[in-house]
Amino acid sequence: MACLGAFSCRLKAVADRTEFRADDSDLPFDSIELADENGVLVTSEDRKIRVEVGGAGILQALGRSRPATEEATSRTHTPPSMDAPLVIVRPTRRGKITFTAVAEGIEPIILTLSAEEHQT
To answer: How far is CA 16 from the centre of its chain?
Structure first.
């Protein structure tokens, strides 16, 4: 399946969870998928994706599973690849963390995560 028009595909965030402890021992792992208008995963497209994290957290790591590429992954961008990039966010304090993913020609997505105090 391929994206045929500018908005025939969309970004989709897949969070392992949206609530976690507000410390550096509990890191949420999120992926960004490219899906068609029916929600079917599109693996035939190579899209560069930019990630921004704001609020009570920072972008800890960003990467893809493609082992051989001539483009480097930066702190906020992944090179084009036919897999879903993995995003790791680290909370810096208690509160909401906003995670935004942007790809050329596709509407950005925003995911809100929540870092809460650890209950003992």
So the answer is: 11
- How would you classify the pairing of strands 19-21 and 49-55? unpaired
Domain 9-116 has CATH 2.60.40.1180: no
Task: pLDDT band for 7, please (50, 70, 90 cuts).
Answer: very low
Question: Sign of torsion, CA 12 14 17 22?
Answer: negative
**CB burial of residue 118 (10 Å; 0-12, 13-18, 19+):** exposed
Question: Closest Cα to residue 57, out of 86, 100, 16?
Answer: 100
pLDDT of residue 2: 60
Q: With bands split at pLDDT 50, 70 and 90, how would you rate the model's confidence at 82?
A: low
Q: Which run of H or E residues covers position 27?
A: none
